[in-house]
Please model this.
Amino acid sequence: MNNKKTIIVAGGGPAGLMAAWRLAPHFRVLVFEKENTCGRKFLVAGKGGLNITNSTGGDALFSRYIPGGFADEALTLFGPQQLQDWLSALGIPTYTGSSGRVFPIRELKASEVLRRMIASVVSRGAGFYLNHRLVSFDQEMKFIFDTPDGNKVVKADYAVLAFGGASWPVTGSDGKWTNMLNACGIETLKFQPSNCGVEIDWPPAVLEFHEGKPLKNVELSVNGKTSKGEVLITACGLEGNALYPLIPGIRQSLAEGEVPVLTIDFKPFNQPAQLMKRLGNAKPGSSAYLKCFGLSPQALAVVKALTGKEEYLDCGLFVSKLKGAPVKIKALRPLEEAISSVGGLVLSEISGDYSLRKFPRIFAIGEMLDWDAPTGGFLLQACFSMGYFAGTALLKREGFGSAFE
Ligand SMILES: Cc1cc2nc3c(=O)[nH]c(=O)nc-3n(C[C@H](O)[C@H](O)[C@H](O)COP(=O)(O)OP(=O)(O)OC[C@H]3O[C@@H](n4cnc5c(N)ncnc54)[C@H](O)[C@@H]3O)c2cc1C
Model:
């Protein structure tokens, strides 16, 4: 007879898998995933290079998260170094690329990384139940799952909910769980896109020749916040790493009914006087501008599209546009395309150990909570950190505390 307490982990993404890994040696851990495989969003994340964490530490790491402080303790207990050590112990070595982004070594595809993580959770004793969607729970800790064989009821001592957010719903992270929480009197917020593209009305001259091309080494600004890097010209507007850190400010402006104006500096490393000097006696115009300012054809097309003829032919005015071309943003791209979402479970519903205030034996972790962070490995890091932290908190409650400091 197994006397171990039963813990349900609902949601088989990175957050749920980490919690299950942490708890499995000490409890009867049952992982329930509503899809026919775990970690589908994790696999999608791996398509563009699985940026699993970031080498940034301390305050610089904490500062990447909104609201400030919500994950500091989890990130301190299980931060980027601990995550890399953990991955390494699972046979997943990592390397650090540009801007401190950390990836599994190139030989390991995301599917293999996921396979090794799940194998480790299984080897520690957890059971997996696929095609099981949690549809309700109550104060008696009775959990009901919708399964291909009808509804199944499972009683548990504790539960960890890790349902994910609502971006890329085709992966299974569809955000539909909010109704279940609302029925239990738990407040949730509407999901909104984050780390997503923005909509801009490009003139045909930009789209016809330059859709899909990058604007490299630009500095973008919105409402006093700036970000350097690369963005891609899309049929709908712009998307890319340089844009993502500005999305929270853009989202807020849009919510307040404003039309956010994105300023693009195409030459962030040059002062206007240096640029003026470069033109020398060359006649202002396309070929001179391309050559003297080292612009890509797509950058020139965008500046041209945002400049009147008179400005375009006046070197001083052209240089000022080069240093700050204003583009009106109409909207954010939809959740279906976004890398992550904000909204979901309101943070005031959880205690410092990620347990629900109204259901203290149920924890909620990962992207299902209402927080934000830019790309760069910060999203996955926080999900793993919360999984480890909530698991540790639960172990401590059950008296396993000191052995796990
Ligand atoms: C295109 C793309 C690229 C990305 N790239 C990166 C990157 O490079 N670096 C990075 O840090 N982050 C990246 N992310 C974000 C990262 O993948 C997510 O932040 C992370 O997967 C969230 O983990 P999670 O465990 O909280 O939720 P998820 O990974 O979303 O997992 C939640 C799981 O819960 C299941 N579920 C939902 N409801 C129920 C229910 N009622 N019952 C049972 N199961 C349920 C879902 O099917 C899902 O499998 C990317 C995301 C996308 C879409």
The longest helix spans residues 378-397. The two ends are 30 Å apart (CA to CA). Residues 10-16, 32-35, 40-42, 44-45, 50-51, 133-134, 162-164, 167-168, 172-173, 177, 339-340, 366-367, 375, 377, 379-380, 383 surround flavin-adenine dinucleotide (CB under 6 Å).
